[in-house]
């Protein structure tokens, strides 16, 4: 066990985490030249395309250091706030972490919150100053930032370039020298932490774990503590680039397990695996059922495809246990599903995967958070409102509560004013302001989660010229003055476009929504009034005028084929639209509320 | 040989080169149009018509139209033309108002417009005039006066189009610079309604969205386009249709002439699929009083197409944008202005 090192990499998006991982694999010979692909660990197409890690991954390297053979387990963590729980479990599986900081951009909010997580778990931190070869790099200053943050010595910071290979050897020796080997008792009853699972259509769910105590053996009868279910370990092994089957995986090591489980929901990240006959008394702390934060309806564009959508969602859920959904129906869109997501990125990913992997054309409705409504009749019982249309009649409501978050924003001091105005506009209350250095400020706000859902990230980037980074953590429910803004197309309310909005902003947002929809809904055979309403009161109105262009132009000889082609193109465009009443509404219109400031 | 002579001789040669295409057909209409054919002299026009007679079988009383601009139609020219086989004039009046003509950058003025009609009606009985509506700054009153002026000359046919601003024209750049107000769809629609009412009262039939004629004076040539008849288009950029293929000549005069001189047709061809033909029939049919014949759809395209057509038409029938008369699917007065959008919906598309 003293030759095992388990570590993860903490970094902000684009600071070079995946590239550094690739370089480590190269250097230790874990990957042959033939297997080399950019961002090796990001195996989903979507991950490689977007350049971000969505799922955690793990890989084992062998490295000879001072004539000793070492096993290095790298646990790659997701790089987005939507997946922070997965990050926390990956961190819990390690003894050390590489803190990768971009030498040009310095420390970002996400890095800090993950760093705190790592420190809470007593991880040994190895600071790596990445991208030192870039012309815009500012190594001295950023090194100072790191030293300030960690309270370490300047010499401990390793200058590196994952791209060119500078510093890789130093990083490897630091991993071995500085990160402690795992502790744990191989003779105790099995206790292993599940930090990820991957769905394989042929082999079922592959569970990734870190053994804390005892060992997991092929054929052993095991138990998952949280779900209280027993399975046989059909296959165990370690995670090289391809899986390496083993008879057992012992305390301190990282591996995979196949039990024939076909449903990802049975394997919960953070759960403890133990021996079924001789269960451990100590489940690993920190297990949580992941709760969805953002909700939206997903509907098939073609109403006939509801069943097909259901089966696609079920298959998606097999490998993404954090996706939850329940059937719902909308007067405007027919039958579909109300889905819960970890965050906005997660929502986009699900939508994209449905389209790519299952060839479904879907409409996603305006996302919302989960509200608690209390009626006058029952002022102590919360009604959970995951869909704006479920909000009880305003006259019967005692109060509504909405989820709040603690937002951490790190920005250059030049942009503090802009960032503050944005957060205040978004109903944030500042709770703290700390100068990390003279240049960099950390701001804390209490803010409604709903405001993050509505175009917050993009605007934060804009007002800070890209220099602000952001992270958040839920802090519970708070009372709020919310109203439902309904949208009417051609005098028909379209429930899928309703949104719960703070009363003070409702009129402004209603107006913007109408304007945006006017832009997005193409001209049709008749005038379409677009209205926003609170209850029976119309607060805004726009009109999309009827289509009439070109019909009055000449139509002889050659005009005929030009016109036919033009109309054919128009008709093809309609295929991606959804008929609501007698109005054709394009997919983007349902998300219009998110892009009000574009 | 001057450029004009070279062009005329190329046109005559193309007529000859293509006679094989119309071996079993009778030419029923001859149309000089597109651009300004009135720049041709009477002799040149006669020569071209003679080439048609030399190479094609022509019906006894063909409709022979010349598109002409008012400034090309002098008193003398009109008399000369009347002596030629030309028996129909289509005069590009556009407007009887100076400000409209200026805005559209026309070569003639209001006075010439009136003068030439006065002269033309003395000789020709079958005259059509073009009028443009929806011009920026054109009030409803001025539009009504335009129509009334046209009607006062007792011409039997009027073609009328909404102004469309083509990109890269002087008008487009004026609009972009804010010198001229942009074209307003709303105004165009109102002008169209006024036009329909006025023409109907005056005894004209709107036999196609942009074409109004008294009984017996519908343009036979243009009607052929909407009824999928065969036609041969001679000259640069001209389109032809042989019942299955649409072809068009190169749109460059010197290249056209050079190619024809080398006995080569400078042509591009597009073969229309059954679906293309169906789509075109529906699109053009809905623009006319003849509508879309259900029998024809079944016979030419098959039961599947008919079924699809009726299924797609259903909601428009309900909304009274379409109606069925006998076995024809026809756009209602209200539906006619929306004919493009409706047609697109009735289109068959292979996705």
TrEMBL record, chain A:
Main location, first listed in the record: membrane
UniProt binding sites for GTP: 14-19, 130-133
GO molecular function: GTP binding; GTPase activity; ribosome binding; translation elongation factor activity
Localization (cell): Cell membrane
EC class (word): hydrolase
Keywords, comma-separated and alphabetical: Cell membrane, Elongation factor, GTP-binding, Hydrolase, Membrane, Nucleotide-binding, Protein biosynthesis
Pfam families reported in the protein's UniProt record: EFG_C, GTP_EFTU, GTP_EFTU_D2, LepA_C
GO cellular component: plasma membrane
Membrane topology type: Peripheral membrane protein
Lineage top rank: taxon: Bacteria
Catalytic activity: GTP + H2O = GDP + phosphate + H(+)
GO BP terms: positive regulation of translation
EC numbers, comma separated: 3.6.5.n1
Residue ranges occupied by any Tr-type G domain in the UniProt entry: 2-183
Family, per entry: Belongs to the GTP-binding elongation factor family. LepA subfamily.
NCBIfam families, per database record: lepA, small_GTP
Function statement: Required for accurate and efficient protein synthesis under certain stress conditions. May act as a fidelity factor of the translation reaction, by catalyzing a one-codon backward translocation of tRNAs on improperly translocated ribosomes. Back-translocation proceeds from a post-translocation (POST) complex to a pre-translocation (PRE) complex, thus giving elongation factor G a second chance to translocate the tRNAs correctly. Binds to ribosomes in a GTP-dependent manner.
Protein name: Elongation factor 4
Species this protein is from: Maribacter algarum (ex Zhang et al. 2020)
